[in-house]
């Protein structure tokens, strides 16, 4: 209280902007810690705001005299005697001194009060973290097309004064209220860093239609300030916009508790209730359908027409089963009204015709089979012999429609047995109903994924998707989108997966198929898990999808799966303590969950953080998972898991399991993702184990074996997992030295800190150095000093294409330049490409499209690509090149595109594009433009993960090419050209980031 007395006389001059800068800053610091003085400040400024409104002619509820200093002192004294919360409640219409950070930061400068939130209602849903813009007003917008008009009238004069006083956050807040997020962003980027500024950056992302990015930004704020009221509010909106209605409802309840104002709290609770009611209504429709659907064969009017129209897809599933299970013609005819209702939704007469056709069948033959089918649907269990008998009877009786259903119900996991897929396809194509052709495609796609061939899914499923959209079979479209998204995830095509799963989630929300939403939640969580491998920033999204899934499906199996996923994310972040807590929760849940099964992913998580006391239980689960495995790739993966678990405890047994995983993975196609991961992870674990034992020749052998490369001298090898790393060097004499670190310090994956000085010395006398770096360390800039000639060595070109491997290097020079990316992207035109010599082939301007570039690349011997390069997760998982657009608008040349194009001319490729050397650092896979070019057949690739200065690029790369043509190796040519260039252009720092990949 004494401190408040000391500062009490400073309140009025602070409000009037009359304190000296040092005194004002000290008072602002005091305000940050003193609730009583803050309450008095709010009370004083409320009258100031009312006075300003009255002067503009706005209606005021009370007189607004100028607050004199004596009056301020009386308010301050009253505040000392009243509860601080009561005084703060009076400030619902108040503004704060410009520059005081609402999050408790330091004042920027003593400034007079400003009034930003002036209208009685607001036109933006979100909350602005700048206090002068956050006065509670009821949300109200005009129900008309187009963006909502701002309700606040903020003069440019006011904004100019704020900018003049250095209050850039205040200017940004003004533009947010005016509905101008672009200008707001410009000022937020310049404003001093604070939690409030960061929260408003998240709000801009939300307001511009990027709820996923907004969630990531806002969760970052809440990690620092857990009860930040505006971040909590806007986070709830982001969750709602992502379709996570139950999680959003819970988030609004949290926001209400931290709102700090009755108006905001009441609205938050109202929004929470509305979202909870929406979720209950949507799930309730499915609950009613699930209760009535299985009884349709005997209670044909059990599903009202209104409910069938609301959820037509799931209703149609029950309808088919009801027709198949109907034992009499009359029972079939009773389903005709439901058939007509569903036909009206699809816009055809397929189901009515099916009912009519089936009702004319011979029920002396069909009736008993229909009864057996009804028992099957009701849960009757058939052994293999009984299943074969039923299917044989259905074939003999010619009951193709019942056979179609029975093949699903008797198959593994409610999928057609692989051996019967061809029969299912024949029956589906013969049926007078496109529903079954779509279902056959889905079944074939799932079988391809199960046998480790996800790349075979794309073409047939995309074609089926186009067909089902024209036929208005939205349920089947949704199911196809799920299986296509799963296939993209399996081959790490995360951008394609994000697009397909996003489209599918929008379809399922429109369709009312609440249960299918849960499948998309789990796949989108998987997507963010994989994306987190690359960006380490998608934890909020993965956590949100998992949280929503648990709220919708609280079964113990869902809780187990969710915690296993979160544990992986914690391991990725090296938060091993939290990962162990999650694994302990999983083990406890499994002990009381009869439906729990051991999954490869689950045991993989446990193996990484299991305590000695948990080893036996985890090994038992691995054994159960191995017994249930149906593919060699899964078996290899489980060998790797058990080897991981044991390598630090029983080295001999662990190493044998890891070597077995490598041997099995070597014989599997690369499309078998589990086998590929098993082999990759096992090599890393064995290399680290050998490094810990100081067995440097073994480390070197392992790294060479994996890539298929033999480097007898002048090489560097590197393997990393978490904070463990091993580095080996083979010098000019062939001698090998190494260093192992099990508690690596410094920034994660900073290339300049990974190679110890003693290892560098081992490379003295080497004219050129080959670097074999296991993912995720390949492609790190600065791994070796720029005065050395060195290059990253990837695995050899695929041996599956003998013609590709045997083709001689080409001699023609291809230049792709002067590209014209779509104008709406807003990238500036590069300077016109120039060179001292003309290329053999020049692809430029509008002709430089991705498809023409791929065709031209096929036989080139030397390639230069002068284009904009960028990293954008919405377009590609790693860097991509921005070329001229195709007729369909596609303009990006990505790593995925290049992997499909054999480069028969074995070119040297110069990527004179910004960020073209940036890689996606998956822990088991090399991925990026350089790796894609090398795998497609390039002899070498020169690229940089940094920005390339356009004006300088042409001359430098001309020099590199000339040196290569004179016989220098690519690494030596780049080293010498870089040295000479830096001598002449000491400010051209970008040149140091250029690297060679081969």
What does this molecule look like?
Helix 42 (929-936) links the parallel strand 14 (908-912) and strand 15 (940-943). The protein is globular, with a radius of gyration of 33 Å. The protein has 998 residues and is an alpha/beta fold. Among the domains are: 2-208, no CATH class; 612-684; 694-792, 2-Layer Sandwich (Nucleotidyltransferase, domain 5), CATH 3.30.420; 803-997, 3-Layer(aba) Sandwich (Rossmann fold), CATH 3.40.50.
Taking the sheet with the most strands, its summary is:
6 strands, mixed
User: What is the structural class?
Assistant: alpha/beta
Count of alpha and pi helical runs: 44
Number of strands: 16
Give the % helix. 55-70%
From the alpha-carbon coordinates, what is the Rg to the nearest angstrom?
A: 33 Å
Global morphology: globular
Which strands sit side by side, in order, in the main sheet?
9-8-10-14-15-16
- Which percent band covers the strand fraction? 5-15%
Arithmetic mean of pLDDT: 82
Poorly predicted runs: 45-113, 797-808, 871-878, 914-918
From the N-terminal CA to the C-terminal CA, the straight-line distance is 71 Å
């Amino acid at each position: 209280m004494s401190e408040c007395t000391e500062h009490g006389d400073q309140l009025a001059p602070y409000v009037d902007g009359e304190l000296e800068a040092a005194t004002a800053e000290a008072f602002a610091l005091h305000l940050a810690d003193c609730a009583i003085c803050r309450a008095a400040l709010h009370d004083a400024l409320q009258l100031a705001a009312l006075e300003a409104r009255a002067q503009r002619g706005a209606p005021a509820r009370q007189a607004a005299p100028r607050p004199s200093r004596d009056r301020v002192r009386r308010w301050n004294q009253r505040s000392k005697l009243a509860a601080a919360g009561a005084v703060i409640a009076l400030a619902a219409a108040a503004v704060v001194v410009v520059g005081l950070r609402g999050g408790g930061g330091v004042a920027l400068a003593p400034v007079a009060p400003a009034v930003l939130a002036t209208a009685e209602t607001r036109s933006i849903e979100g909350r602005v973290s700048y206090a002068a813009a956050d006065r509670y007003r009821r949300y109200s917008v005009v129900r008309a097309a187009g963006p909502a008009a701002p309700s606040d009238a903020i003069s440019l004069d006011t904004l100019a004064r704020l900018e003049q006083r250095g209050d850039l956050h205040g200017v940004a807040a003004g533009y947010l209220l005016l509905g101008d997020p672009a200008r707001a962003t410009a000022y937020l980027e310049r404003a001093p860093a604070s939690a409030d500024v960061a929260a408003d950056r998240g709000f801009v992302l939300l307001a511009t239609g990027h709820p996923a990015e907004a969630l990531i930004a806002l969760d970052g704020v809440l990690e620092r300030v857990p009860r930040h009221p505006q971040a909590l509010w806007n986070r709830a909106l982001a969750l709602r916009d992502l379709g996570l209605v139950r999680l959003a409802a819970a988030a609004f309840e949290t926001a209400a508790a931290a709102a700090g104002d009755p108006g905001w709290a009441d609205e938050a609770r109202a929004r929470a209730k509305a979202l909870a009611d929406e979720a209950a209504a949507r799930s309730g429709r499915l609950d009613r359908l699930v209760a009535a659907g299985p009884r349709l064969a005997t209670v044909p009017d059990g599903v009202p027409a209104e409910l069938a129209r609301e959820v037509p897809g799931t209703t149609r599933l029950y309808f088919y089963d009801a027709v198949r299970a109907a034992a009499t013609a009359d029972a079939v005819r009773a389903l005709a009204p439901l058939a007509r209702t569903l036909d009206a939704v699809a816009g055809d007469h397929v189901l009515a015709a099916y009912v009519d056709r089936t009702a004319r069948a011979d029920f002396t033959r069909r009736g008993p089979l229909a009864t057996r089918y009804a028992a099957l649907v009701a849960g009757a269990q058939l052994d293999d012999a009984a299943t074969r008998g039923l299917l044989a009877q259905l074939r003999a009786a010619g009951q193709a429609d019942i056979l179609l259903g029975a093949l699903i119900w008797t198959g593994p996991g409610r999928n057609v047995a692989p051996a019967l897929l061809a029969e299912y396809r024949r029956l589906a194509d013969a049926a007078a109903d496109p529903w079954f052709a779509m279902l056959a495609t889905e079944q074939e796609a799932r079988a391809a994924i199960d046998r480790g061939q996800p790349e075979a899914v794309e073409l047939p499923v995309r074609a089926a998707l186009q067909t089902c959209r024209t036929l208005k079979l939205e349920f089947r479209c949704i199911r196809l989108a799920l299986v296509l998204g799963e296939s993209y995830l399996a081959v790490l095509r995360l951008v394609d997966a994000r697009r397909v799963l996003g489209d599918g989630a929008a379809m399922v929300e429109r369709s009312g198929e609440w249960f299918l939403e849960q499948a998309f939640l789990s796949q989108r969580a998987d997507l963010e898990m994989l994306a987190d491998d690359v960006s380490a920033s998608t934890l909020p999204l993965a956590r949100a999808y998992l949280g929503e899934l648990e709220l919708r499906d609280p079964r113990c199996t869902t809780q187990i799966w969710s915690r296993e996923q979160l544990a992986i994310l914690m391991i990725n972040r090296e938060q091993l303590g939290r990962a162990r807590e999650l694994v302990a929760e999983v083990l406890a849940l499994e002990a009381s969950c009869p439906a729990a099964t051991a999954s490869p992913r689950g045991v993989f998580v446990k193996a990484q953080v299991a305590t000695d006391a948990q080893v036996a239980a985890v090994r038992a689960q691995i054994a159960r998972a191995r017994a249930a495995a149906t593919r060699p790739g899964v078996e290899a993966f489980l060998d790797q898991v058990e080897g991981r678990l044991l390598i630090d405890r029983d080295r001999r047994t662990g190493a044998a399991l890891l070597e077995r995983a490598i041997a099995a993975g070597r014989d599997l196609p690369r499309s078998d993702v589990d086998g590929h991961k098993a082999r990759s992870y096992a090599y890393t674990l064995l290399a680290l184990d050998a490094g810990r034992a100081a067995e440097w020749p073994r480390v070197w052998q392992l790294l060479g074996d994996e890539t298929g490369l033999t480097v007898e001298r002048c090489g560097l090898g590197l393997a990393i997992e978490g904070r463990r790393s091993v580095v080996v060097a083979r010098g000019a004499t062939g001698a090998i030295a190494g260093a192992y670190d099990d508690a690596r310090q410094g920034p994660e994956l900073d290339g300049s800190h990974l190679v110890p000085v003693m290892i560098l010395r081992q490379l003295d006398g080497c004219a050129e150095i080959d670097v074999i770096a296991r993912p995720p360390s390949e492609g790190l800039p600065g791994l070796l000093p720029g005065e050395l000639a060195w290059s990253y060595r990837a695995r050899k070109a695929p041996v599956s294409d003998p013609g590709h491997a045997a083709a001689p290097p080409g001699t023609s020079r291809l230049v792709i330049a002067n590209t014209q990316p779509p104008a709406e992207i807003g990238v500036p035109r590069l300077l016109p490409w120039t060179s001292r010599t003309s290329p053999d082939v020049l692809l430029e301007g509008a002709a430089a499209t991705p498809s023409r570039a791929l065709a031209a690349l096929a036989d080139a011997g030397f390639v230069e690509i002068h284009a904009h390069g960028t990293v954008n997760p919405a377009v590609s998982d790693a860097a991509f090149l921005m070329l001229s657009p195709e007729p369909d608008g596609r303009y990006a040349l990505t790593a995925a595109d290049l992997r499909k194009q054999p480069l028969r001319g074995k070119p040297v490729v110069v990527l004179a594009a910004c960020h073209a050397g940036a890689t996606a650092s998956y822990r088991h896979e090399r991925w990026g433009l350089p790796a894609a070019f090398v795998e497609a057949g390039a002899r070498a690739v020169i690229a940089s993960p940094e920005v390339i200065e356009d004006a300088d690029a042409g001359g430098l790369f001309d020099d590199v090419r000339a040196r290569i043509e004179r016989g220098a190796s690519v690494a030596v040519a780049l080293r010498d050209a870089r040295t000479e260039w830096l001598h002449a252009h000491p400010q051209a720092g970008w040149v140091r980031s250029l690297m060679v990949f081969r």
